Amino acid sequence: MAGMVVALIGCDDFLDHTPDNRVTISTPTQVTQLLVNAYSDGNHATICELSSDNIVDNTSPDENGVRYNLAGYENFTPADDEAFAWEDIKSGIQQDSPSHVWSNAYHAIAVCNYALQAIEKLETEGRGDEVAGQKGEALVSRAYHHFLLANLFCLPYAGPDASKTIPGIPYMTGIETEVKPQYDRGNLADVYDKIEKDLLAGLPLVADNLHPQASKYHFMRRSANAFAARFFLFARKYDLAEKYASVALGGDNAEPSLRTFWRSTYSTSESLTNAWVSDGDPGVLMLIPTSSIYYRVCAGKYAHNREAKNATTHSPGPTWTGYNFHPCMQNKLYYRGQSEYGSIFGPMMEFFEYTDKIAGIGFVHHIRPEFTAEEVLLTRAEARIYMRKINEAVSDLRYWDRNRWTNLPVNDKPSADLTLEVINNFYTDADQAYGLVKNGIVSPIHIDEVCPPANAAWAFGSDIENLVQCVLHFRRLERIDMGDRWFDIRRNGIVITHKIGRSRVETLALGDPRRAFQIPADVLSAGFPSNDRLPSGGEAGSAILSSESYIKPLTPRP
Q: Is the pTM of this model over 0.70?
């Protein structure tokens, strides 16, 4: 299957136009302007959060038999049903659908390739120095979007050998001139090799001065190194993950500048959201604007509620055992409708673009803080855990934890400073003392069964399990509503269960092929080979198609 030559995108004329309607790109300035479009506006948060253990179905009964008769969001139903049940998502090509994510990622890649073609011509003219930064940005962005596609539409990376048997995604490095181009899907090992090649070639070239008015919306040195750290963490090359994370954080011995968001108070939901995605915050490394209705889909029938809420935003933790939720979450959690339907993390509220203010219609946007200093710090902590740099890993985790306590009300104090002893005591006794196993904070980790480490000496062992549980817990809090929990579930082999409606229960077992999303239906219709996602046979999902429509803004209830 992986070696078949197939059509990549169902839309016949998608790639036979220049990405921004220019006929030629012939100057360094034009290349820089073109790279404004080298980022996808697709948002994978909706399908990933619905697939993870961060969302529950409110129409299913809770432990007391209580359930609610709620409908899904009209502009996404029944795609939300399909995503939550780990079925093929075939009921939409609109915002947040696999089709939207796929096509927009490949569009961004096409822009990168068009920029690189222009750069190559300028290099032959002896002007390579003038476009070195642009070349770095294009290579890193091309690597990033292929990395995203691979981690959505392929099974989890299983190492350089085993991944050769896992179907990949087409790695696009050229400009298309044909109406119906043909592509080789290849295998996941090759995709990771090409991502690494692009990344290592682009990193030394990335500059910080190309987009002075919107620098946080482009790959710069810190954000490019943050992506490198994430990539090598997923590839289990922990020495490189630590190396690039340290560069992104300012150096091995530097004191990282984390977001000021947690150290401030906000009087309105708008100021809260604006602060969360502020490009002036030193801890925000990169922002990506997206077209998304996530906030509407995951706040009703499907919502952050019950055990999902108790495992994250309303969970105890090693230094906040005396609280129902971390005090830093005060005034940052909202609900829509009745509070028992679930919580909403306030900073992730939407930005609404009016197309007709009189009619009250327009488009919904979310800005993703794609790379932050906190996320990089947790990446480095995890890498150090597996490298047996225990003291350094605990130091990183302590630094993250202390930032969450900064500038809170005087009576909100941590129960203890975060130490290895505190971590071991909390996560070892989690079920007996705090019900963390029951609530899903602590789940068995099978990372070695998913992907062996690049260095066998760093293999997972019970002596570091509590530290890994801690970093996964902190990352789940840090990246709520971003979709990253799904990636942690995949690469760690975490088994989760979804209760669906009145009586259906689905379990995502270790090695379950549904850990990869199905290739979008419009791509399959062009002849692209599908992912085998049926663990026990049978047909799932429906074939109803819908299109993106204008929608009205909404107002949350605090």
A: yes
